[in-house]
């Protein structure tokens, strides 16, 4: 699978969308976020919520994004 470079804004939007889905669900739900450093200037964000949503986000040490 080829990963496209995403933005923090896209990742936050997906987390918000998943939160809304889990909140509306009539039962138990879980959301988990893993962040790991890739090569210089990138991080991988994996959102676990039944499925996994993977994002590669550009990053700089001075303030993210």
Provide keyphrases for this structure:
65 residues, alpha+beta
Number of domains: 1
Give the beta-strand count. Answer: 4
Strand content: 35-45%
- What is the makeup of the main sheet? 4 strands, mixed
Strand order of the largest sheet: 1-4-3-2
Mean pLDDT across every amino acid position: 85
Binned, the helix content reads: 25-40%
Summed up:
Helix content is 26%, strand content 37%.
Please explain how this structure is put together.
The model has no long low-confidence stretch (mean pLDDT 85). This protein has one domain (5-58). A four-stranded mixed beta sheet has the order 1-4-3-2. The protein has one helix at 8-24; strands spanning 5-6, 32-37, 42-49, 51-58. It contains one helix and four strands; from the N terminus they run E-H-E-E-E. It is of the alpha+beta class and 65 residues long.
């Amino acid at each position: 699978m080829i990963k496209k470079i995403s933005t923090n804004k896209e990742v936050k939007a997906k987390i918000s969308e998943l939160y809304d889905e889990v909140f509306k669900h009539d039962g138990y739900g879980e959301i988990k976020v893993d962040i790991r450093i890739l090569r210089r200037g990138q991080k991988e964000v994996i959102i676990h919520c039944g499925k996994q949503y993977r994002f590669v986000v550009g990053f700089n040490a001075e303030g993210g994004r």
